[in-house]
UniProtKB/TrEMBL annotation:
Pfam name, any one: Ribosomal_S20p
UniProt-listed InterPro entries: Ribosomal_bS20, Ribosomal_bS20_sf
Name of the gene this protein is made from: rpsT
GO biological process, one term: translation
Provenance organism: Puniceibacterium antarcticum
GO cellular component, one term: small ribosomal subunit
Family: Belongs to the bacterial ribosomal protein bS20 family.
Signal peptide, first to last residue: none
Keyword field: Ribonucleoprotein, Ribosomal protein, RNA-binding, rRNA-binding
Protein name: Small ribosomal subunit protein bS20
Length: 89
């Protein structure tokens, strides 16, 4: 358990950050799920619109330290290629 004042403060800060990051991660996953659902329905316009909304949200998660930059880029790239494939099918 934390003993020094500094370690106690760090523990408090860590709890706060955990709650904030958890909410942010959940919000991003919701946006990603909306894209997935639009892809599953086969509606390219809806999928494109959902991806356009989800992309900045995902990148915002990168700047806030929730996701790694490459992870977010990989997710966006894979979703974009799947949305693009809808138009060709």
């Amino acid at each position: 358990m934390a003993n020094t004042p500094q370690s106690k403060k760090r523990a408090r800060q860590s709890e706060k950050r955990f709650v904030i990051n958890k909410a942010r991660r959940s919000r991003i996953r919701t946006f990603l799920r909306k894209v997935e659902e639009a892809i599953a329905s086969g509606d390219q316009e809806a999928a494109t619109a959902a991806l356009r909304v989800a992309q900045p949200e995902l990148m915002r998660g990168v700047t806030k330290g929730v996701f790694h930059k490459n992870t977010a880029s990989r997710k966006v790239s894979r979703l974009a290629s799947r949305v693009k494939a809808l138009g060709q099918a």
